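INTERNAL AUDIT FORM
Audit reference: QA-55
Scope: verify that the stored structure record matches its stored sequence.
Auditor: D.O.
Record contents follow.
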Amino acid sequence: MLNGILRIQPTLPPPPAAPAAGEDDLFSSGLFLRLGFSFMVGLAVGYALKVAFRVALVVGGLLLVLLFSLQYSGIIEVNWAGMESSYDGFVDWLAAYSGALKDFIANNLSSAASFTAGLLLGLRF
């Protein structure tokens, strides 16, 4: 009897839930599952390099201050020319191997792009 008089409105589905707090953060599990293995390795390597660079800079700086103070007090004599030739040899070696790294990245471009993005992000955070 009320069939023609009452209209039943279809119910709409509820709106999608807002993302939980921290779901789109850098270190959330959801983000890790969507990214590739190369990106994750790059992120880990970048973060490790960042920490290692900081430690190396602090230790190297302390060693140089110690060397300068010992030379100033006359306890040791530092051969700066010998240190310069060793440094130049290291820079030449590093230049040769960085060219090999560039060739490796060029040959594996798809993985390397993801790795490089992760590396840069790891160095930033």
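Auditor finding: record pair retrieved intact. DSSP finds four helices and no strands in the chain.
Action required: none
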